[in-house]
Amino acid sequence: MMKMKKEENTGGSVIDNMTQTKEEAENAQLKRLFNWLYTITSYFGWYIFNIFCSFFIYIGKGSVGISKLLWRTTGRFRRYLLLMLKKLGLFLLRPLNTFIRYYEGNKKALRKEKEKNDGKLGAKGFFSFAGRLLFGKSGLAVMLFNFAIPVVSVFFLFSVITYASSLNYAVKLNVNGKFLGYIESEQIFLDAKEVLQDRVNYLGSDLEIEALPSYSVEQIGYTETLTKYQIADLVLQNSGVSLEYGYGFFINDVFYGALMDFSNVKNTLDKLLSDYRKEYSTDLVDFVDNIRYDEAGLYLSDSIIDEEQLIDLLTSTQTEASYYTVEDGDNHSLIADKVNLTSSQLEYLNPGFGETDLYGGDIIKIGNEVPFLPVSVTRTEVYVVDNVPYMTDTYQDSDIFEGSSRRIQDGQYGVNEITADISYVNGVEIHRTITNINQLVAPVTEIIAIGSKPTPEGSFKSGTAAKGKFLWPVDGGYISQWSKWDGGYSGHNGIDIAGLYYGQPVYVGAAGVVTYAGYSQGLGYYVEIYHEELGVTSTYAHNSALYVSAGQRVAQGECIAGAGSTGKSTGTHVHFTIEVNGKYVNPKDYLDIPPGTPVNLA
Q1: Which of 186, 251, 283, 511 sits at 20 to 30 Å (Cα–Cα) from 415?
Q2: Contacts with 199 (C-beta within 8 Å, 6 or more apart), sequence order
Q3: In whole numbers, what is the pLDDT of the chain averaged over residues?
Q4: What angle do CA 460, 466, 471 make, to 5 degrees?
Q5: pTM above 0.85, yes or no
Q6: Gap between the terminal Cα atoms of the chain
């Protein structure tokens, strides 16, 4: 029995030893953990410290460079800058210095506590040290907070500036005393009123919707502003009338009505152009009128039109009176071809058309069925113009008597090849744009010699001829056009004597010397005679034949030509002019007009 008790006592001692050994192991492990955390914290502090030191080293290097530069420029600025840098450095390092001193103080306290406990540091002591190091009065958290304050302040300042710059101002719009929204400017509302008028003034409607605006400027931040179409919708919604959503259809800005769907109308118009483009594959084809579909919006219910009815209108034809302006070179058949009408149709629209002479500028009425939507066909055409005007040069010639002139070189019209874009509507030209001019034949300058030779003394009577010195140049006839001085058209320098038969003799009105006998584009065959005794030059133009030549002397009453209609002329007649010192004068003052001569003005 005693042996058993001894064994039992021995067993209890082993258990106590095992328990004591386990506690020591746990204490050792905890101590190692504390040592590890302490080491990590120390290394972390050392790492942060090195970062700050490196940062300030770079700042210092930059400061040194700037200081050297300032040193070379101005001492006052250098001293001022160094002082500011010193204050900045002390300000930035103050939290770090405080933390270092705080850390050293706590480290000494920790060391004393370890010495007091025989070199051992309990969990309470370690956590107390770590807490003070991190969250103490001058701990790591406080240091980091001190560094974060400037950063947060700058960020806050930047945010305030960004917000202030993003502030938007707009015009607050009230219509009829009701707030509608915000607009960029008052012009938006004025544009909206035009949209509103377009929507309500359909097909002659006289409906008016009151829209009295008032404005004020407000800050709106990021609020969106209204468009003119949105404003028009809002005004209509507040008007109390029956409304429908649709698309406005306009031709030349005239509102024809609103469509619930415009796809069929658009397809129809596209097909109309497509048919034209098939026929005129190489030409530019487009509608003459401006067609547009407005944005979807609210329209009066009464303005909604049936799409099929609109298509019927757009594809219909109408009779329209139009006119064609006669151009130089046109004749009856050419005009008929140009306007795509027969001669009988033109005769019906213009009674006597076939028997009337045509002159440039005459107006011919044409009338035919035209599409409701006319289509213009623009094609590039190349044609030749053979009447390019020529220049006229003059010079003084001492071999020709004063008051007379002589053509040394006839002018010749040039020839150009013209490339132009010509637009036709219903076969009638409406516009022509010349894109290129290629000169094929250059115009030849007309050269005229003006007499400067003094009149010989004693060979004729000097002075200006009295009125009535020139004989009437033909037998019979009548005055068909006065000169510009007596009511004739502008630029007409002579008297036209008509009522003659082709080839009827033309007589010279006074003795003189023929200075020119030839042809020109305007005067046709004409004779120019210088009358020494009178000091004037007479001209007889548009003849069919000439019986004298330059340099020939003629007596008063001698036949010099046969009457005709050459040059720019509309019938057989004689164009008679008088020049004094190279200038045209009123021929009526020099011509002996037989009493009772008829005046039948053309």
Answers
A1: 283
A2: 232, 236, 248, 255, 258, 297, 298, 299, 300, 303
A3: 78
A4: 85
A5: no
A6: 174
> Which of the residue ranges 111-115, 264-268, 571-575 would you say has the lowest mean pLDDT?
111-115
Which position has the token pair 């004409």? 526
Q: 3-class SS at 356?
A: coil
Q: Which 8-state DSSP code applies to residue 443?
A: P
Beta bridge partners of 244: 299
CA distance 537 to 584: 9
Could you identify the residue written with the tokens 């949209």? 195
Contact 70, 84 (CB under 8 A): no
582 vs 448: CA distance, rounded Å: 11
CB 401 within 8 A of CB 451: yes
In 3-state terms, what secondary structure has residue 418? strand
Q: How far is CA 401 from CA 449, 514, 529, 578, in A?
A: 11, 12, 11, 16
CA separation for the pair 172, 184 (Å, rounded): 9
Which of these, 230, 227, 231, 296, lies nearest to 258 by C-alpha position?
A: 296
3-state secondary structure of 17: helix
Return the structure tokens found at 423.
């637009």
- The amino acid at 7: E
Q: How confident is the model over 186-224, as pLDDT tens digits?
A: 899 898 888 888 777 665 566 777 888 888 888 776 778
Q: How remote is the C-alpha of 200 from its chain's centroid?
A: 31
For residues 232 and 298, is the Cβ–Cβ distance under 8 A? yes
Q: For the chain, what percent of residues have pLDDT higher than 70?
A: 74
**Phi (first) and psi of residue 171, to 5 degrees:** -90, 120
CB 539 within 8 A of CB 582: no
Name 262's Cβ contacts closer than 8 Å, sequence gap at least 6: 247, 249, 293, 307
- How confident is the model over 259-285, as pLDDT tens digits? 888 889 999 999 988 888 888 888 888
More confident residue, 588 or 149: 588
pLDDT digits (tens, 9 = 90+) for 450-483: 767 664 433 333 334 455 578 888 888 999 999 9
